[in-house]
Structures are given as structure tokens and as C-alpha cells.
Write the C-alpha cells for this entry.
Amino acid sequence: MTDSADLPKLRQTVSERLPKRYRAEMRFRVAGLSAVGIAVAILLLLVGSITMQALPAFTVNQLVLPVQLSGDLVDPEGDGSEDSLRRGSYGRVLQDAVREQFPEVRDRRELRALFSLYTPLNSTRLMETVLADPGLVGETHEFRMPIADDLNLYLKGRLVADRTLEPVGTMAVSEAGRDFEVTAESEAFADLRDTVSGLLNQAADNLERRAATARERAGNLSGEDREDALYDAEDLMVEAAAVRSQAALENGWVEMSDSLPSILVETGETALRVTALSADGRSARAEAMLGGGAMSDVSDWSIYVIDTPESRRRVSDQLIVWTRALVRRGFVESGLNPYLFANADSREPELAGVKGALYGSILTMLITIILSVPVGVCTAVYLEEYAPKNRFTDLIEVNINNLAAVPSIVFGLLGLAVFINAFGLPRSTPLVGGLVLSLMTLPTLIIATRAALKAVPVSIRQAALAVGASKTQTVFHHVLPLAAPGILTGSIIGLAQAMGETAPLLMIGMVAFIADAPTLGLEGLTEPATVMPIQIFLWSSSPERAFVHSTSAAILVLLVLMIGFNALAIYLRRRFERRW
């Protein structure tokens, strides 16, 4: 017992230690809240960055052109039959519609560039439109088609760095041989001249540094290698001197090239590309990109500068000029992207969609649910409620726990060896994908179901048996319904994990390019298909820049599906949960 004389000392000790305990507890709470806050911030940063990257994929710029569906082109047989309509020259129809907007384009090379405003696959879409309504033959139809992917990004401001300058005063354009000379009332080109000169000086500095490096390398070489290095250094110095001379405007002009920003002078339906800038900052030499001709006292004009050099982008100045002209004429409309959810995969980013992968995921998960949930629940019920405790059942439990930790690609190898090579099932089908994902999900589902069954109090079983219920009645009438929330939660989380798997499906060929969506039905189970994770993988490895945004959009769709599954699990748990 504590001596009464020691009580004051004990109280003093407790009173001294108590604030320290409170401070320690407060530090622990702050650390916990900080960890949660950091985790939430990282999650929001991740989702936010994906969302910002995906936004361009949800909108599209479409060409809206009047196309003349003349009978001699779209109905060569003249009988209006389906076979005749399918043999129509729909590509020619689209080309004629585009050429009508730019009749001055006649050179074969320029025509090829003009027709790259859209993908030729749109001719198939036009054919399907005519097949759906043969009455359009002989009529003028307003056809919508997405503009080329790079131009679509350009119109969204995602391709180049550009700016528009509004000069003060008037401008005059005079013919100078085959080109034109632009003269402004003010020094409208002075800032651009200084910018170009600065860029040329930077290029000259880089050439001189490369020449110095070549000389240093020559010091460590001998014979022909030394001579070659010295020759390269001398050649670089000569090139640097030429660039430096051009930057200094020694001949009164600085010449433009595709490694420098592009400068366009625009007025109405005329666009001139600057080929040289004068030292006085008022004059420029230019070539016609759209329209042309001598003009004087033009007050409504602007200078459009593309700071990204033409050599560093996939879209030429001419394509940009044509696109801007179509926008001014009202033939380009921006809106929600109908192709993202209505189309399957495509080689062209502007026509690619997630429909095929979405249908494939639905069919694959349908097979997974049908096979894994009943088998997993029944296995867990048997092992937990009926199986005797011996070495054999212990071995089964150990194997189940080990299988839950096996890498998913191993299940893909198993599916490849058994279902495809041994049983001869077709590759890249939802049936095989569902079988593989079922094998992968079973261990997780069994463990979750057994944990839910163990959570049911023993008194429930004892009470049921006490009133005369059989073992089976006790399990299926009392234990299993009470364990249903945990079983449903574990099943949905396991299926959500399976939906996001990629490695096992790669092994069974679901990485193939699938241009058509599978049928939502029994016949679709054996049709070639892919799933959302594989679609994301394919788009992320595509060289086209527009697929970057499509990849982020597909990730968002998959995240929405995963969040939906987890939200359903939370709802079911709260809806059926019993508290003891």
C-alpha cells in the first residue's frame, strides 16, 4: 500500500507528467491529421492533373462542310441498291467539298496537304450516312467530320505557342516579283526583328560552343581523326559567322527559316508569310499563303506569330492558314466529343473511342462475376462451416493464402497454357479474360468471405441449433445472411481490382488492336475484344500527341467505374450491416 505521506509527492508527480501526456497526444493527433492531409492532397493533385490532361479529349473541333452527293459519284450503278451505294467514291466527294473552299489550290503536293485537314476514314462515315438515308443521293448534305488530330490540338491551344499582334496604323502590300513587300506605317516589325536577331545570335553561340568542343576533341586525337575534328570545328565556325552576320542585318534584311518563329500578316481573306524582315522595322518580304495581290492603306490587319518553329511541329504554316480561314468562314464548330464514347479504337486519335474497351470490360467482368462469386462463396462456406480441421484442409488454406499473393501475370501464363493452348479457346476474347480474372479473384474472395463468416457471433449458431435447426439451415438461414454485407464488400472490391488488371490479359492476347466493339450478348463472349486497362496501355504507347489526352480520358472513365464499385460496396455494407 502507498504510504499516506507519499500521496502529495505522487500527486505532484502525476500533475507534472499529465501535461506531457497531453502534449504527446496532441503531437500524435497532429501527425495523424497531417498524414491524412498529405495523402488527400497527393490524391487531389493526381486526379486533378489527370483531369486537366483529359479535358481536351472531351471536346472536338469538327469540319461542317456542304458535300454534294451527286449520283455519278455515290451511286455508280444508278439503281440506288446497297451494293451500288457501297461502291461510291465518297473520298472524292469529301475532296471536292474541301477543294471548293480553296479553289486556288491546284498543285498536287498542295492538294495532298489540303486533304490532310481530315482523315480519309471519314469517307466510310459518309458512306454509312448515305446507306442509312438513300434519299440523300443527289442532294447537298451538311456533313460533320472531326478535323485532323494535330489541327484539333492547335485549335485548342495545345500544339504551338502563338500570339496575335495588333499593329498601329495602316499597311500596304506591293508586288515584288513572285513575292510581296509589306510596308507598315509604323515600326510594326521592330520587336519581331529584335526577337529574330536574338534567336540567331543564340544559334551562333551554340555553333561556336560546338566548334570549341570539336577542337578539344581534336587535341586528344591523331591522324585522320584529328583532321576530321578540326575540319568540323572550322566548318562550324564558318556557319556561326554566317549566322552572326545575318543577325546583325549587315545586308539590311534578316532572312527567316523554318527554325525561327513563323510570322503571318493577315487581313480579311489574305494571309502572307514573312520571309525576311528589314532593318528599319517597317518593311517585310512575304509570300502568299492565302489570297494575295497588291493592297494599299489597309487598316484592318494583324500580325500572327507562331513562336514554335515550323521544324519543331507536325503542322505546317500552310495547314494553319487553311484552318484559320475555315474558322473565320464558320466551317469549324467546337463542341462535346461524340466519338469518345460512340466509337471503338482507331488509328486516328480524333476518331478513337472507348466503346469497344468498355463493352469488353463489361463482358469480361460478367464472366468473372458469374464464375468467381458463387465458387468463392461456396468454397469459403465449406471451409469455414463444414470442413474438418485436418492437415488436408490446412494445406488448402495455406495454398489459398499463397495464391492471393501470387503476381497477376502468373495467372495470365496459366490462362495462356490451359485455356488457349490446351483447350483451344479463342484468343483476345472476354470468355478467356473472364476465366483468367476469375482464377485471380477467387483467393481474395474466399479470404474475404471467410472473414465475414467469422465475424458472425457464435451465439447465433448456437441459438439456431438450440431451437432445432439443422447445420445447413443454420448456415444458410442465419449465418450467411448476416455475413452478406462483408461478403458483398469483399466481392465488389475483388472485382474492382480485377477490372483494373492489365498483366494477365496481356498474356492472352487482349492487347490486340480491336476496331469494332463486341456485341453485348452471348455471341460477344467469343468475339475479339479488349478492356479499359489494355486500351489505356495501347493509347499511352501511341506516338500521336492527341492520344495523350485520350489516355487521360480513358483513365478517368476507369476511375469512375472503380469509384462506382467501391461506392456500391460502401452502400451495401451500410445498408445490410448489423452491429452486435
User: Anything to note?
Assistant: The chain has three domains: 58-155, 162-312, 349-576. The chain has a mean pLDDT of 89. The longest helix spans residues 7-54. The chain has 20 helices and twelve strands.
